[in-house]
Design a protein that fits this description.
This protein is 25% helix and 21% strand. By secondary structure, it is an alpha/beta fold. The chain has a single domain (27-128), classed as Sandwich (Immunoglobulin-like), CATH 2.60.40.420.
Length: 140
């Protein structure tokens, strides 16, 4: 009887642990979905894309782009507004570029090649601290 109780307790612990792990699993987002990371036709493309997603810490952003044509530069808010990639937080030049969200700060990404950023190849995301994946709109 004690062995059966121990086995049942172990089973309950494993079920609860697997439920907790499943609930906290990080999501992966392909930036721009099937369009990927490129110069958009509409300047607001990535603004609209980010508004339709909820981001949390440990989520992963995946940028798919053509190597040597585009890059992904994580920058400060000021650099984002100025399309300035000269002092990057992080720079990825090989696709797919993966960025793991490590905090609830706003995050800013641009392509620093040519006029791509000024043409709308830039992304600003707001990371939610909420466990329910709630999302607060961030004006762009």
């Amino acid at each position: 009887m004690t062995k059966l109780k121990s086995s049942l307790l172990l089973l309950v612990v494993l079920v609860v642990a697997s439920m907790e792990f499943h609930g906290s699993a990080a999501k992966q987002f392909v930036v721009g979905d099937s369009f990927g990371w490129a110069v958009p036709r509409k300047h607001s493309f990535y603004v609209n894309w980010s508004r339709h997603h909820s981001f949390k810490t440990n989520n992963v952003l995946i940028f798919n782009f053509t190597d040597n044509v585009h890059n992904v530069v994580e920058v400060t808010e000021e650099a984002y507004h100025n399309c300035d990639g000269t002092k990057p937080i992080s720079l990825q030049t090989i696709s797919p570029a993966r960025f793991t969200i490590r905090n609830t700060d706003n995050h800013f990404y641009i392509c620093s090649i040519g006029l791509h950023c000024k043409l709308g190849q830039k992304l600003r995301i707001k990371v939610s601290a909420m466990d329910d994946n709630s999302y607060t709109m961030l004006p762009h």
